[in-house]
């Protein structure tokens, strides 16, 4: 049944999402890579699903096995509206992946300037360095 929740997030199916949650599927259940419905909805840019998941108590700072949060994924994917919503709802703007990457680093690396600006405006630390960068 967890697969149905993840499918709902991927396909922007609010009706299926609500059905899953009404039937006691854990809102923070993951696939084998540690992706939650929130991570998947963020990747796909499904803002309505992201909003519903957060309003129902999804962990906004849940990390995948690689240490990515939904904000990292939205920043990397260039999903401006999702990133803005996550920032406005107190996602950890300085969270680092297992390799030390921040959402700011990822958005800048992918040339998603509006997300980088939003992160900086929200107080993201531009001096956090990834572990893979030379010192």
From TrEMBL:
Presence of the UniProt keyword Protein transport in the record: no
UniProt xrefs under InterPro entries: Ankyrin_rpt (IPR002110), Ankyrin_rpt-contain_sf (IPR036770)
Cellular component terms (Gene Ontology): nucleus
Keywords on record: ANK repeat, Repeat
Organism superkingdom: Eukaryota
ANK repeat residue numbers: 33-65, 66-98, 99-131
Keyword Electron transport on entry: no
GO biological process: regulation of transcription by RNA polymerase II
SUPFAM superfamilies the UniProt entry points to: Ankyrin repeat (SSF48403)
An example molecular function term from Gene Ontology annotations: RNA polymerase II-specific DNA-binding transcription factor binding
Protein name, as recorded: Ankyrin-3-like
């Amino acid at each position: 049944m967890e697969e149905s929740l993840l499918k709902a997030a991927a396909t922007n199916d609010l009706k299926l999402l609500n059905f899953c949650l009404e039937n006691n599927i854990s809102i923070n259940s993951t696939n084998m890579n540690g992706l939650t419905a929130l991570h998947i909805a963020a990747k796909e840019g499904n803002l309505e699903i992201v909003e519903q998941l957060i309003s129902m108590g999804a962990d906004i700072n849940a990390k995948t096995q690689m240490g990515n949060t939904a904000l990292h994924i939205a920043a990397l994917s260039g999903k401006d509206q999702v990133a803005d919503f996550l920032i406005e709802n107190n996602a950890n703007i300085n969270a680092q992946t297992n390799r030390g990457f921040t959402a700011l680093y990822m958005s800048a690396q992918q040339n998603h300037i509006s997300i980088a600006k939003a992160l900086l405006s929200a107080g993201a630390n531009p001096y956090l360095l990834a572990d893979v960068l030379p010192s």
